[in-house]
Amino acid sequence: MMKFRENEDAVSPVIGVILMVAITVILAAVIAAFVFGMAGNIQSTKSVAATVTQQGQDKIIITYQGGPDAADVAYLRVTAPNTTVYNTTDAKGELKKIDETNAAGKPPTVGASMTLTLDPNDDVDKDWSDRDHVVVTAHFKDGSDQVILDTFV
User: Fold this and answer.
1) pTM of the entire structure?
2) Which residues of 48-78 are buried (b: 16+ CB within 10 A; e: fewer)?
3) Helix (H/G/I), strand (E/B), else coil: 24
């Protein structure tokens, strides 16, 4: 009777070598992407804040709280509940409606209060007594924008 020799050499070493080569190639590609800047510009989050309170049916007060990155703020942009957009125009937080002549603004000082007052001639909203949406965006000197307040009052 003829006895067959079984080949007990496993395939594991071959698969192991292939996996090690694949892992090495992937690691090299990831490291090269970061070293050569192929990962793109990663923008960091800046830290500034604002708070909002409602006074009556026609007035909303936004207070700029500042933060570690307050010196980098170029101006604040406020979107009122009636979707009108304003920029801060001075250190006191004076707001001016955006048009073609004043697309940019000036930074407010920390603690400045900005007042949104409902225009009685506005036919979109008759009062701001419901939950009204207010958004404050900080525009920074490096050209980036970041929402610092998005709330309902």
Assistant:
1) 0.69
2) bebebebeeebebbbbbebbebbebbbbbbb
3) helix
For residues 133 and 103, give the distance between their C-alpha atoms in angstroms, rounded to a whole number: 22
Least confident of 5-9, 29-33, 111-115, 147-151: 5-9
- Yes or no: say if 142 and 71 are a contact pair by the CB < 8 Å rule: no
Q: Which CATH number goes with the domain that contains 123? A: 2.60.40
Instruction: Please check the confidence at residue 95 and state whether its pLDDT lies above 80.
Output: yes
Q: Looking at this protein, which amino acid is placed at residue 5? A: R
Inside any domain, residue 17: no
Q: How many CB atoms lie within 10 A of CB 128?
A: 22
Structural domains in the chain (count): 1
pLDDT for residue 84: 85
